[in-house]
Amino acid sequence: MTKQIYNFSEGSSQMSNLLGGKGANLAEMTRMGLPVPHGFTITTEACHEYQLRHNLSAELLQELDQALDSLSTVTGKKFGAAKDPLLVSVRSGAAISMPGMMDTILNIGLNDESVSILARLTGNERFAYDSYRRLLAMFGNVVFGLPETAFDQILTDIKKAKNYDSDLDLTIDDLKEIVSRFKEIYADSDQGEFPQDPKEQLLAAVNAVFDSWNNHRAQIYRQENHISEALGTAVNIQEMVFGNFGQDSGTGVAFTRNPSTGEAGLFGEYLINAQGEDVVAGIRTPQPVSVLQVSMPVLYAQLLDTAQKIEAHYRDMQDMEFTIEQGKMYLLQTRSGKRTPTAAVRIAVDMVQEGLLTKEDAILSVEAESIAKMLHPEFDPEDLKKHQVLTNGLPASPGAATGQVYFTSADAKKASDQGIKVVLVRSDTSPEDIEGMIASQAIVTSRGGMTSHAAVVARGMASTGVVGAHDLEVDYDSKTASVKGQVIHEGDWISVDGSSGNLYLGQIKSRDAVIRGELSQLLDWAKQTARMGVYTNADTPKDFQKALDFGADGIGLTRTEHMFFKSERLLQMRRLILAENKIDRQDPLSKLLAMQQGDFYEIYRLAAGKEVTIRLLDPPLHEFLPHDEKEIAAVSQQTGLSVEKLRARIESLKESNPMLGHRGDRLAVTFPDIYEMQVQAIMNAVLRLHDQGVNVNPHIMIPLTNSKAEMGWVRRLVVDKIEETMAKHKLSMTYTVGTMIETPRACVVADEIAEVSDFFSFGTNDLTQLTLAFSRDDVASFMSDYLKKGILPADPFQTVDTQGVGQLMKIAIDKGRRTKPNLDIGVCGEVGGDAASIDFFEKIGVSYVSCSPYRVPVARMAAAQAHIRNRTAKVALV
Ligand code: ADP
Ligand code: MG
Ligand code: MG
After folding, report:
1. Averaged confidence pLDDT in the chain
2. Whether residue 332 has its Cβ less than 6 Å from ligand 1
3. Does ligand 1 have an atom closer than 6 angstroms to the CB of 680?
């Protein structure tokens, strides 16, 4: 028969599966020589057995007797004895902490006889009866299932009748009366009298704790937190120490550092003359532990010293429970303390400086994803409490923004030009809305998913975004939106929380975030540690600057199409698309050239030598064309084309599946002069900087190639233009021309494509869309069902689908590097900023990721963590 009970002196923190977290840490603290009341732990294995047989086995009962005997020996008291009785607590404790979910009973062993002996022995009658009434209430509730309120009511009634402020005012006689009235509750119930036999109390309590594993709230908690049903709970039986002994006693909770800010120093609360849960239950208002410094200085020093010891031992911030009995301190629990992201970062960095952690430990101790929460403006928590959630959608782009509602891009732009803070609210957005989006504090849509146009653009611009707010109905005609009958008019104030997806009516104060101090330090360490580079997707100098502030290594993707949506450019772009021949295309092309070279110049200048990868035009041309009648009329005027001709041209450009249509480098195959113009713009910017003594090495990226023949053809076009310019200006420089890998075919023939490509960059948005046949603009309608029903483990547009898309990537990397062993391979889709995906990319040998500016620090942490975790696994084991 395996051992089912471990003395605290036998266990350790390594044994939490067997002893539960609480038991393992009580054992660990005992081994450290800290003042832990004696006790032992019944294992989680015994719990399994109990769940099968529904009673305690004979072997377990025997072990329990032995354990109680040795507890008597060490404490000098005897459980169940009439003189100097041993009292114990029976405490639940699962392997993974489930705070407040299961039960604990204190003061077991007291009965009508021993309560008076205890009173006499201690000379403290009040304390004895206070302990007894607590036992009666806890046991009644936990073991007999009597309602907690019945016990509470009696306390409340007596305090009210006697005009008492707190439990402390209760006299000995009051407590005796409470005890007898509590016993009446038992007598009136089906369960019968309170068991006077201490052994019977103890066994019933152990059974009840095992049963509490299956209580409703514990089950719900496990489901919510994905904790296995099979784990079971352990039971700790521990000698009681008494915080309710008098003014020199008390009980409290302390964190070894501030869990909200991370500041070093004890942080917590305690109550004088109290027991157990009084602190958390809010029966009286506790005092900050710092008060102990004055009221019990010796004890405070001891607590501080203990906190330091425990922290140094666990090398992590701890959350401790302690009790003081007659001026002596005991520790009753310790566990890793929950903390805010800000605190986590500060604690990690401080602990390295204090020599408690290595830099790598510190990097691993902070959840990468949590960094994002530190970087966006956020609503002032106090002000937020005063507002009610109007409705919510998907948290597409984090941040907190307040502004006045406008429903069209043009109205938003106009209002913003007048200095109004704007929130653009639409059913969905198209690239045309970009100006309005730029002008807005936030974008809200009622349709679309996390990778819809609005979401991608909002993240790219680091603007706040909530998409797919289904309850929001937008009516463009009346310029109103409604949520279940509540109407929002143009100009109304609204507040948007892009981190939670919540929308609020009215204005809420927000506060801004920057990277400094400990976060900056931690990110530096992460940069030194990571193997993969972290670049940004940035389309404007403003985005790029933000990314540089956040530590980006350079630009992994500049989407040139976004540069065409400002109104003057859009006009030229439209003239270009509507032109019917090469001659007519020349004038708009030259105008676009002039504007684009200015953008490139700015970006290269900002980059100051850092790598910048520019992708040539990618989206279907019709995205640039007017859609409604009003716009068609306006464009007709601007371009001088008749409305009929315009309509016909728009009609001819219409595609049933634009994402599978005339886009990407297919545009270049049909209209080579567009890519030639873009390359010329790049070269002009390079030349201008060269004249200023700044060397630039362009990296040009071709979207959507499918084959060596296709990439080879486009590459020739690009290279010819570059070489021609270099020759003409006697410029010598290095440059690269690479391709996006974003179709399944490209992955499979990557060895051939690599022959004509200097680098690869996975466009995981398209690759995912094409591999799963999930249109990324339409997934919102079914994605949540797939996630809810567990058919997909995660949204593949947010976390790479390792088994499908990931395997295609692996094929492409292996094949590409067979052709060019040092081929530089990046990832520039949304998943490039996702921590779980980055771990996978480390394993398959990706060289760098590129993500939106606000994701850069998250990606940096994730890249460092992935490298530390996977370093030892030499070959990709995926
Ligand atoms: P939880 O898991 O809900 O925190 P615990 O088992 O930690 O429950 O018990 C709650 C509180 O009861 C402890 O923080 C402590 O104050 C008190 N307690 C438990 N065991 C003892 C004991 N042996 N002596 C004194 N107080 C105890
Ligand atoms: Mg506890
Ligand atoms: Mg793409």
Report:
1. 92
2. yes
3. no
Pairing of strands 736-741, 699-702: parallel
Q: Which residue has the tokens 């604690």?
A: 347
Q: How far is the CA of 475 from the centre of ligand 1 (A)?
A: 58
> What is residue 165's DSSP assignment?
S
| Residue 78, ligand 1, Cβ within 6 A | no
Residue pair 753/711 in contact (Cβ under 8 Å)? The answer is: yes
- Note the ligand closest to the C-alpha atom of 238: 1
C-alpha–C-alpha distance, residues 33 and 391, integer Å:
54
The residue whose C-alpha atom lies closest to atom 16 belonging to ligand 1 is 276
Sequence-separated (6 or more) residues with CB below 8 Å from residue 98: 218, 221, 222, 225, 227
Other Cβ atoms less than 10 A from the Cβ of 10: the count is: 15
**Token reading at 690:** 């060269």
Name the residue at shortest CA distance from atom 9 of ligand 1. Answer: 104
Q: Which long-range contacts (CB under 8 A, 24 or more apart) does 717-726 make?
A: 717/668, 717/672, 717/675, 717/676, 718/616, 718/675, 718/679, 721/676, 721/679, 721/680, 721/683, 722/679, 722/683, 722/698, 725/680, 725/683, 725/687, 726/683
Alpha helices in 663-791 (DSSP H): 665-670, 672-691, 708-729, 744-748, 750-753, 764-772, 780-788
Ligand 1 atom closest to 321 (CA): 14
The residue whose CA has the least distance to atom 15 of ligand 1 is 276
60 and 134 Cβ atoms separated by less than 8 Å: no
62: Cα within 13 Å, side-chain hemisphere: 6
Contact 593, 681 (CB under 8 A): yes
Q: What's the confidence (pLDDT) of residue 222?
A: 84
In this structure, the residue with its CA closest to atom 11 of ligand 1 is: 276
Between CA 205 and CA 663 the distance in angstroms is 70
Residue type, 706: N
For residue 822, count CB atoms less than 10 angstroms from its CB and return exposed for 0-12, middle for 13-18, buried for 19 or more.
Answer: exposed
Edge-to-edge, what's the strand order for the sheet holding 39-42? 5-7, 39-42, 233-239, 88-94, 104-108
Percent of the chain's residues with pLDDT above 70: 97
- Secondary structure string (H, E, C) spanning 414-436: HHHHCCCCEEEEECCCCHHHHHH
Name residue 488's beta-bridge partners: 481
- 323 touches ligand 1 (CB under 6 Å): yes
For residue 269, what pLDDT is reported? 87
CA 265 to chain centroid? 27
Report the range of poorest mean pLDDT among 284-293, 657-666, 768-777.
284-293
> What is the amino acid identity at position 701?
M
Two structure tokens written together for 500: 């939670």
Q: What tokens were used for 583?
A: 């001659």
| pLDDT tens digits, one per residue of 164-196 | 988 899 999 999 999 999 999 999 999 999 999
**Residues 538, 559 contacting (CB under 8 angstroms):** no
Angstrom CA distances, 535 to 71, 399, 860, stand at 61, 21, 9
Ligand 1 atom with the shortest distance to the CA of 104: 6
Residue type, 178: I
**Ligand 1 pocket, mutate which of 104, 237, 338 (most atoms under 8 A from CB):** 104
pTM of this structure: 0.82
Q: Between the CA of residue 230 and those of 49, 94, 219, 621, what are the distances in Å?
A: 11, 11, 12, 57
How far, in Å, from the CA of 253 to the mean position of ligand 2?
9
Helix (H) or strand (E) holding 650: helix 643-653
Q: Can you say whether residue 401 is alpha, beta or left, with left for phi > 0 and alpha for psi between -120 and 50 degrees?
A: beta
Residue 55 per-residue DSSP state = S
Strands 824-827 and 759-762: parallel
Q: How many residues does the chain have?
A: 878
Does residue 521 have its Cβ closer than 6 Å to ligand 1?
A: no
- Measured CA to CA, the distance from residue 362 to residue 355 in angstroms comes to 11
Give CA–CA dist 127/59, Å, rounded.
37
